Amino acid sequence: MKKELLDIETGELISTSVMSSITIDCTIFGFENGSLEVLLVKHAKGISKGKWGLPGGWIQEVESIDAAAHRLLRELTGLDNIYLEQLKAFGEPDRFPLGRVITVGYYALVKREDYSVKAGFTASEAKWFKIKDVPELIYDHTQILDYSIRNLRKRVRQAPIGFNLLPEKFTLLQLMQLYQEILNVEMDKPNFRRKFLRMKLLVDINEKQKDVSHRAAKLYKFDHKTYQKLTEKGFNFEF
Amino acid sequence: MKKELLDIETGELISTSVMSSITIDCTIFGFENGSLEVLLVKHAKGISKGKWGLPGGWIQEVESIDAAAHRLLRELTGLDNIYLEQLKAFGEPDRFPLGRVITVGYYALVKREDYSVKAGFTASEAKWFKIKDVPELIYDHTQILDYSIRNLRKRVRQAPIGFNLLPEKFTLLQLMQLYQEILNVEMDKPNFRRKFLRMKLLVDINEKQKDVSHRAAKLYKFDHKTYQKLTEKGFNFEF
DNA sequence: CCAAAAGTGTTTACGGTACACCCATGC
DNA sequence: GCATGGGTGTACCGTAAACACTTTTGG
């Protein structure tokens, strides 16, 4: 529809075919050394210069919202096939200081082993933060992040999406630590292992850890087929 | 921001301060005679004349998305304080034939006893449909409705939101029938009653049904305080 | 040997499920 | 009496929770 719009951050008039008044913002979660982290970007210019925020962008005229979010992730991380889900639209009238802009929030789960900062983004522009170390964010991004975390906690108890934060091969203890970190609870190792193994969601790949200073743990993979079957009939993870 | 826009349904140029390219559509659920129903409106003019769709509207420049949805509901049903939650944004590029418009989907639960069609809406313009009798809908509204139903089924197992579809005072059988209808399952009466009573969510108001041709059932109310407490620590309803 | 984490076994209690059965009311 | 739904009792089973215990590996 419209081809010219004011870049509401820089004040420049830009000419392109994106939708005005609608943006996308994405909370990207990662898991490293037992801590849940989010990827934030530092704004280089405009009124929010020097401040951290969630990665975001515009939606093109001929692109679905989901496609725009995937494109954004690819541009930022170089990764395709990231686990990505829409949260909801955020649209308080005053959420954005330079005009009325509604944003569609997403959250993504990334395997840190796959991730590398993409060309064009230096370490000073994009950085992982532990949840507890997240600084003050621009606009309503703190609110969006809070919503993302609450949503992750909810989702992780309804579907085994936590796998998307772990390496391909992982141990049961890693899995348990992931749940402990996200849900902020203490769990019993023996009970956790039995509970998860009973679900038949893990495939024993007959490999073990190497170079650990204790008994090596079995490595598992996630069984996508069982996951699909369970998803169709609905299921629950209460920890 | 912009004050003039083309009414994409009628083709008229209208002058008002609403956001262009963003609308709201709302699935309004009701429960009557053991059946789950939705309120649809018939479009009177424009390219979708004579077809049924979800009630929807524009978002004003100085109004939050949630406020717009509440206003829409009030205009349509005359009701305030309706249970209302956002679903997500729907934005396929071709979802709307006359231009790129993203819509924010909502779903609402109303007590049918409170509801009356508002002045300005005649019976031929707004009508309740049983879920199975819903006709073909305009644009992507069938998809939004499907998403709403799936979401309702999910939510009803995570929080006792079903209460919002029942009268103030209800029997345990009514409650069970509501769950059976929404989840499309058969339940055991004795077990359902014990399970629900154990949750301490129901208040026995020491009243009984009248004029029924069988033993009169106790009437209950929903205990909002216990609900709040349970919500804070998270809870699950598996039926 | 010890430390550290992997992994097994056992006991208890509670909630889900199935189903038999009695109660109250109108016709 | 009979139909209809209201409501109680009970027996069985699976799983969650707590925790004692054994196994494997590096140092």
Automatic annotation (TrEMBL), chains A, B:
Domain of life: Bacteria
Keyword Hydrolase tagged: yes
Protein name (record): NUDIX hydrolase
Keyword Hydrolase listed: yes
An annotated Gene Ontology molecular function: hydrolase activity
Domain Nudix hydrolase: 21-153
Originating organism: Salinimicrobium tongyeongense
Keyword annotations: Hydrolase
InterPro entries the record matches: NUDIX_hydrolase-like_dom_sf, NUDIX_hydrolase_dom, WH-like_DNA-bd_sf, WH_DNA-bd_sf, WHD_NrtR
